[in-house]
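Z., the sequence and structure:
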Amino acid sequence: MSSLSALAGRRVVVTRPYDQADSLTRGLQTLGATPVLLATIRLEPLKRVPGLDSAFNGLAEYDWVVFTSANGVRFLFERLDAAGRSARDLANCSVAAIGPATASALQARAIQVDFVAEEHVGESLAEGLPHVAGRRVFLPRAAGARPQLPEMLRRRGATVDEFATYRAVEAKPDDGALAELATGVDAITFTSPSTVEHFMTMVDSAGFNPFEAEPPPIVACIGPITADAAERSGLRPEIVARDYTVPGLLEAMIAFFERSRVHDEQSA
């Protein structure tokens, strides 16, 4: 049976910010699923970032500029643009990306990417980044990001200047999407720890628990870091993508629901 039928008719919650949900939403629709858009977070720039202007003045002195998300690319270049700077200011630096989506965001700005982590997590980036002992690393990323990456780079002998340029905050609840969620869905997707955290806060504030439905919705996570966050929130991820990207998440969902279909047919 085709992959289309594996997700056909399934109702799947998308918790990403609305302005970043297109790829997952379109992928689900192509596979026959019905997306339920319930953005749990929105991203906003931090107004004050101590030391960032001074770092901009000395960008040429950094050996590596390390990006951990496409959002990190977006918000850093918004800052550079506002300061009258451009991608040319990174010309003397080597540039690293945590994964293909981040690399694509850099390449769209005509920036050469010198290193992409083998696994799209901070630990893999920190372990694989070449020639870091004694080198300076510029690390722009989200407020509250996991500390493993800068800690591991410092243990390898790098000097890391870390700057939080944006943050995730809880989105305003969409009453229509919450009503759809309350009527029952087949799966809920999470693409970052912050989507998990704010989803749980949102449904708690709405006064219902979607996981008390019978059967409960499947929890689908884009990778192990997000899955860990789901487990800490008391959820049980049944789908964890091996390729920590939106296409990888879709592939993992196809495989899961295809196995479920086969199991149901055999049990009938």
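The radius of gyration is 20 Å. The chain has a mean pLDDT of 93.

Let me know what you think.
H.
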